[in-house]
Amino acid sequence: MAKPEELVFAPLGGVGEIGMNLSIYGLGSRQQRAWMAVDLGVSFGDEEHLPGIDLIMPDISFLEKERKNLMGLVLTHAHEDHFGAIIDLWPKLKCPIYATQFSAALFEAKLAAERNAPKIPVTVVPSGGRVDIGPFNVEFIPVAHSIPESHALAIHTTAGIVLHTGDWKIDPTPIIGRPTDEKRLRELGDEGVLALIGDSTNAVRDGRSPSEAEVARTITELVKAAKGRVAVTTFASNVARLKAVADAARAADREVVVVGRAMERVSQVARETGYFDGVQNFRSTDVYGHLPHDKVLALCTGSQGEARAALARIANDDHPEITLNRGDCVIFSSRTIPGNEKAVGSIINNLVLQGVEVITDRDHLVHVSGHPRRDELRDMISWVRPQLLIPVHGEALHLHEHAKLARAAGVPRVLVIRNGDLVKLGPGDPGIIGEVPSGRLYKDGTILEDSKSRAVVERRRMAFSGCAFVAIAMTEQGELADDPEVDLVGIPEKTREGEPFDDLVFDAVVSTIEGLPKARRRDADALGESVRRAVRAVINEHWGKKPPCLVHVLTV
Length: 556
Hints:
Elements: E1 6-13, E2 22-28, E3 33-38, E4 43-44, E5 55-58, H1 61-65, E6 70-74, H2 80-83, H3 86-89, E7 97-99, H4 101-113, E8 122-124, E9 130-133, E10 136-143, E11 150-157, E12 160-164, H5 182-191, E13 193-199, H6 212-225, E14 230-233, H7 239-251, E15 255-259, H8 261-272, E16 296-300, H9 310-315, E17 329-332, H10 341-353, E18 357-359, H11 374-384, E19 388-392, H12 396-408, E20 413-414, E21 421-426, E22 431-435, E23 440-444, E24 447-450, H13 454-465, E25 467-474, E26 485-489, H14 501-514, H15 518-521, H16 524-543, E27 549-555
Parallel strand pairs: 3-6, 6-7, 7-8, 12-13, 13-19, 14-16, 14-17, 15-16, 17-18, 19-20, 25-27
Antiparallel strand pairs: 1-2, 1-21, 2-3, 4-5, 5-23, 9-10, 10-11, 11-12, 21-22, 23-24, 25-26
């Protein structure tokens, strides 16, 4: 009798963190498995810890090695943390991609906006439809979330059914798109679900997430009450929120001016795919200044404090076409993602200093999360009744709380895992059976580098303590041919006592050279290392920091 095929799962990103989602499923024997990937997203760089790094992506070296066995990549939805790495990483994989219409259209628009982007075909699957991907039969089950056409994936295999929830919530009135398909999820529970791989983002929050319809009502009231200009900032991908803002503007007899490329792109795709049927046409920024103050609403990018986005430029009063004045109003219809508080706070402070009224979710219900709170997690478990639950899409605390809730709800087996853990889902007892390579890639300008990249490590050190550059010209006899050149970058000009650092370093270089035996002076490497140590030591003595020091020795 043939041995049953083993079904395995491994997260390569998105576990122990929020963002950079990439999950893989394997079916077959330990020697030969067919693989399927779910999502391929990014997270965003932090200027404090990763200066110059815009995007962080999952390490796909394992999938590159298994490329001939990789049957396809399936997208749950079109948020950047789920599909933002495809353009950079797909050329290494060249596997088929499967997505529903809106995700495919938004991806196509993103490709069109990229310079020299590769041609990447996407197979469109209908919402609620099924597709065979190698030995996996994948069913796209509609779920509510903060972007159209989010789907949980029911992965049907010979070893059983796995429900990969993607990002979801329960919202009976989502404004755009279909509510979470409770009926189909209950049917899957009746068929028997081997494992639930579930979103943990809001597992620490009690109760239920409010509905998009409630946010729409609040925004309408606020826009109607406003006397001057109104600007609303939100996540560009939240098409339901964009529609709610447009409806509020119409109710208040205001024109909508779209400000920011991402907002323009999503609005265009929403119209093309029918999600903006009945929504008035938006106006371009060049008409903004010609409209009466009480007849305009600016829909802006920049809710997360992005320095180059529309709202930051408006707050700094350097946007070429959009200005706000005393008595105008800005609504932040968004939640600040952890790590962005300082940037968002800076924008709010700048607006307040200009006399602009700022409204956030601290004051009114102007934003709701797209992720399930604890009561919704309990509902999903009761509908699906999985044999095993694995929390994903969350930091350590979120995973822990989701696991605790699942155990209390009676799930027979619960596994908390890390990126790179290879988990046997079935048949038989589930558990961690190994490890696959996982890690991070940094998008540095147009180059992809791994997390141990010398450039990234050195740039972090330079951001902390600057850099010292020393050029020395020596004769073949081991004598100085000319005065050393010293250039200090990012280092204070003077010590606490008021002595110029340039002079201190110059003196340290000269005295170090003069104190070396002639033979050592004629050895460029030994001379350079001695000078490097002396420069770092003298700067540390007077500043308390040891900057990198680059010494160039030239023999003349």
